[in-house]
Amino acid sequence: MFCSKYILIAVAMASSASAAALSAAAAQSTATAATAASVAVVTSAADTRSIELSPMVVVCTGSITPHNGCVTIPISNDECVNFTGGLTFLNKEVSNAEIPSGLVCTFFSALKCKSSSSDDIVVLNGGTWNFFKVPGRNGQTNFNDKASSFICTTF
User: CA–CA distance from 125 to each of 1, 5, 64, 94 (Å)?
Assistant: First the structure.
């Protein structure tokens, strides 16, 4: 009995340490996650948490299949993404985009998601888009190499 009591305590302590390590690893991996999904973190039978990850939009200067000049950009709802800084190479160079379902993204020909007319924006729902032919105000339009910023909203 004496020996099994200490084994039981050691197993309980190891389970607690494993749960803490799993929780820390899950927190770290969500900070660098590159996919849009929900992750369930289970640290014990009584402690289950769900973590929402940002949706991702793929924007390409070349083809989308296969990916050529593509960048995966995490999206915050209603937050403008400017093609400046590390994304400068995309400014006025975007040819394709892949938008997750459940999002609608507006691409602007100006920075800061500003528009002076309805002709300098395109609004795209979830799907894969070739910017040579996207829905515009008066039917299909060519928005290739025109985008400088975009903003997405869930619907």
Answer: 66, 61, 17, 17
DSSP 21-49: HHHHHHHHHHHT--S--EEEEEEETTEEE
- Residue 151 burial by CB count (10 A; 0-12/13-18/19+): exposed, middle or buried? buried
Q: Kindly state the helix (H) or strand (E) to which residue 135 belongs, with its residue range.
A: strand 134-136
What phi and psi values does residue 140 have, to the nearest 5 degrees?
A: -65, 140
Query: What are the pLDDT digits (tens) for 66-125?
Result: 999 999 999 999 999 999 999 999 999 999 999 999 999 999 999 999 998 888 999 999
How many CB atoms are closer than 10 A to CB 110? 15
CA dihedral (62, 84, 108, 112) in degrees, to 10, reads 170
**Single-letter amino acid code for the residue at 66:** P
The model's pTM: 0.68
Distance of alpha carbon 44 from alpha carbon 129, whole angstroms: 43
Which residues are paired to 153 by β-bridges?
104
In a 10 Å sphere around its CB, with 0-12 CB exposed, 13-18 middle and 19+ buried, how is residue 134 labelled? middle
